[in-house]
User: Fold these one by one.
Assistant:
Number 1:
Amino acid sequence: MKIIRRIIVWILTFFFVSTILAVVAYRFLPVVVTPLMIIRLTEQFADGRPMKMKHDWKALDKISPHLPVAVMASEDQRFLLHHGFDFDAISKAVEHNMKGGRQRGGSTISQQTAKNVFLWPGRSWLRKGLETYFTFLIEMMWSKQRIMEVYLNSIEMADGVYGAEAVAKRHFSKTAELLSRSECALIAATLPNPLKYSSANPSPYMLKRQKKIEREMRYMPSFPKEGQDYDPKTSAGGIYSK
């Protein structure tokens, strides 16, 4: 029994030390590859398709300032207000899902970043528990600006395309820094399912969603720079003007 206890203690110690060190390292280092990227490459190989992965890391100040605002409007409107978990959104999602129909998630940008960088896709309780753990770590050790920077660089935005710079070059023939407000809203509109929805060839549904996101962007403040808080005067009302 003592040997088993020692093994368990060693495993837990290794887990906590290694994961904390990884989160600290990614506070400063670019995220070059994620588990999802490796999974997609494996799927491509298994299906006999060409293996492709476009991913160009860009600092947040080299990405259009409209893109953080667009993804907040689309994915997580309370991003600058919560500490990793939007319990109001989670409660509404649970209530909606209990009624049946299309399932709705309540994940924040922080949770999605934790999942993208450290974990694998899935809905198991183990994966969800680890997502909660890593979300807590990044919210404690990273700034909101760093979370947004990693999110915009690591998220899947098309088949084999990851991050703002890659999708800007592939779909708009420009760098992420030059993306317009409308283009950023269109990119954000794909994020619920970037393998189904395309910012290169948007459907009527996508264009409708794009316009809705553009309207919602008015109620999001300009994304603050590192070390600064958001300015309520840059939003046209809503939760950030209170």
Number 2:
Amino acid sequence: MSAQFDQIVSLSKRRGFIFQSSEIYGGLAATYDYGPMGVEIKRNVVQCWWDEMVYRNDNIVGLDTAVFMHPTVWKASGHVDAFNDPMIDDKTTNMRYRADDLIEGHIARLRKKGKDERADQVHERLVAALNDENMTDALHDLITEEEIRSPDSGQCNWTEVRQFNLMFDTRLGASSDSENKIYLRPETAQGTYVNFHNVRETARLQIPFGIAQVGKAFRNEIVARQFIFRTREFHQMEMQYFVAPGSQMEALEMWRERRMQWHLDNGIRPEKLRWHEHEKLAHYADVAFDLQYEYPNGWQELEGVHSRTDFDLKAHQKYSGKKMEYVDPQTRERFIPYVVETAAGLDRIILALLCEAYREEEVNGEKRTLMAFHPRIAPIKVAILPLVKKDGMPEVAHAIKDSLKADFNTFYDEKGAIGRRYRRMDEVGTPFCVTVDGETLTDGTVTIRERDSMEQIRVEKDAVAGVLIEKLRSWEAGT
């Protein structure tokens, strides 16, 4: 990982954003727990997404489906037969890698050395290999011919490439019989598809309409590294948008634009985002785009916008024997809808926001670390700080905190020098600090300090809520 990545991981633990799961037992690889600050960011991101996808659209509703589903669901969806990644092992270290990731890393290194023509040639071969009937052999040939070495051992001592199914399986009930095998869901989308008619009928929806869902998914990733970027247990925020056949491209472009804007509105810089069109399509898609973010270790997928055609509904109609057709109320035409999906990984979004917010700067000869979150993302909106723990200042500070609770997530801190407390609040990304000092006791005013500029203004203590609300409105408006 890069130095910035290491700093973010360190700060995440130190300030209560993210902890290694089961740390007192040495941890469990690729699993993480969200601490007091992290869980607030998580809730804020989910709420922002839900506001954008559900509350701001008259034709999108929510759903929350079970992690466990009938095993035939995953046969119908193609996950049992086709949900695989190409795996290769380094014989020297027994470390396991995704074969396509190794080749993409090789291409990136060639470009870094200025060998763009050579990189283009390898890229063309990679695309051809991914679409080859004997994909595993083609990928292996490419790795060996390019003499791509293991990142850990530096050797070119590889096993054959083989397909690795990413689903976790378990048993239902007390019996260990293979007939009781079920799966932890690898995506939330299938729960939406099997409830297509339930939701449509009860919510009285007509095409086009969408169903949004936030929930956990599980994938037995070959390589689960890079902090919370790739984990085996993660949260998805997915919306399935059902449209008439032939209108999917128009819907896809609409959602590409809207999803890009949502990330920009959350404070991600436009130069850190780009679209990447899939060169190898999943079995269900006719077009697929990834919105990528430039993490400290390079460009990686942040969110996908895919046209899934009518594959899923058709497959569930075939396997269940239940009709998945939609009847147009005006024309009485029957058809199976096409689906445009927006699929975002909550943990990847949080990692991008952590990377985007991280700042280091020098103030009066001292280093200041701050997390410059957009206020809607920040875990704490306002900190209330009495200058000292006497002279009635704590009592006034507590009264101000109580008056702000209804509108803001607040935090009270009276321990340590005021400068040190400001730094603690900067490190967790708190946009505003309200300080009660000696003047408060004489004239009833307090200071409001802004995180990014560190500017302070004095306002009447009874006017704090109104001033903060106005400042947040200005922040939202970009003024």
Number 3:
Amino acid sequence: MSNSLKEIRKKISSVNNTKKTTRAMKLVSTSKLKKAEEMASRARLFSDKLNEVFYDMMFRVKKIGLTNIDSKFFQNTEEHELRVVDIIFITADKGLCGGFNTTTMKEILRLKAEYESRDIKVRLRCVGKKGSAFFSFNKVELEDVVSDLSSMPNYERSSSFVAKAVDDFLNGVTDEVIVVHNGFKNLISQELKKVKILPLIPDEEYLKSIGDNHSHVLNVVPEDEENLILDELAKKYVEYNMYYALVDSLAAEHSARMQAMDAATNNATELVRTLTVLYNKARQEAITTELVEINAGVEAMK
């Protein structure tokens, strides 16, 4: 019985140590989440304004009648067969964040199977060690991999990474580029986001909301500069949407880790409570057994 008590005490001590770790990780994630949420909020404001400018430009192209635009960024995939698709997906560099990474990778596998069922080739570009490790283990080829970017979003590195997919699109190697990531919804939930960043297609709802009032649309420029301005704006649009996806993913990662560590801490607390009850029962049984043995010895000596 003493061995059993010793084992239970070891388990309680071990669980308490784990509880301290998970509680500390929860506090760290909570602190990082606040910073990431603020960064995501600022990035979202800039992204919304950039999108507004971009859609205004698209309005000008569509409504004012500039039919000589020859930018490859705006090629319509409906006009030709979709042959190759680039999927850029974002995962974390670290684990212990619940189903955050699993949700993204399941969606990638689903998309890959869906496109391939239509005889469309899929190329995967991975951000994050967890995604890289998963697909490497499952022997799925990755076109491009970058680490330490999802945990530390950087605009220059992000632009350099997405530039490879943009170049392949402009050179006709691919016909479509999609970004998939688990985004921040609120403190207790995340949402899977899938955004087609190439080719650039105007938001029809936004165009309808503008109607015939285009007073805030950018002024018409000489024809020889139209493609140049469109291309530069399109590049900024793609680059910043990629960067925003990284920032949004980081906030969601901290949110998921905070929840996971909170759940782990609560489970540890409950386990300690269960083990303590078990320990007390075992200790009471040991004391009772000793008393019975003492009384039996006393009786035998009479």
Number 4:
Amino acid sequence: MFKLLSKESNIFSIPVYIGFLLLIVILFNILIFNTYEAIIAGITFLGIALGYFCFHSIALNYHTHLPLFLYTFFVFGLYPGNLDIGIAVSLLTNSFLLLLLTSTNEDIRKKSYVLVGSIIALNFIFLPTTWPMALFVVIHVIATSERVGLNIFRFLLGIILIGFGYFSVMFFLNFTAWNMDYLPFGKMKLVKNYTGLLPLLPIALMLIYAIYDHFRNYNKKSPISRYKYTFILVFSVAQLVSIILYMNKSYEYLLLLAFPSTIIISRMLRFLPKYWMQEVSVWLIIFSLIGFKASTYFDLF
């Protein structure tokens, strides 16, 4: 299977995988179909579908079928069906952030910080527990920009514009009371019981090894590859902070890591020294995700 997935993808590949994604979303929502769930499913579909185009934007996986297939399987294994609207919006906004911040056009990145700030604010409105993403963007600006102060001002301007618009609409609709849910810092619930995540242990170990292997061969990487890989790692840490602090039993939070995990694992598989290691690893990922899906669906843990 690994050799088959290592073939270069073509222009027709992404629509095929998006078709499988659409089928997954429909099948998991067909029994609980209503207008609200249909809207959430639509937002989820758009957010995850944009992820396929992000693979080509980031260009770390050599345009093969492997990341597209693994990403689809990650979504299958981690998608619960009845997704919270906050997670759905976060998946959509994360895809836009990846497309904007990983652009190879420096001019586009500089001019996009107001939009990035607006996206972060919108993400916070729907899911306040994603506040670490704001810190991620600030770190990204400081690390990559020549005019740090100006770009941070643009970023904050985007946040202020969305915030002002949101408060104006709420005041117009006569919602004048402050909702304490927008202050998530006192509601942290660290994951204490990891038994439900045991089927994903092989994938977690692969991620750890992949990061170790990257830094072991750090000097062999090209500057562009090192920059983009570091970007993915910091992006993953921002998602991981939200997961550790707020996930508890809401395992749909793991979908936030589906895209970066796919990139990291796909690169690791490509550079494994033996073919049998690559083949075994692919099947181990598949069975781990199937096992996790079964354990959550049948509530085995």
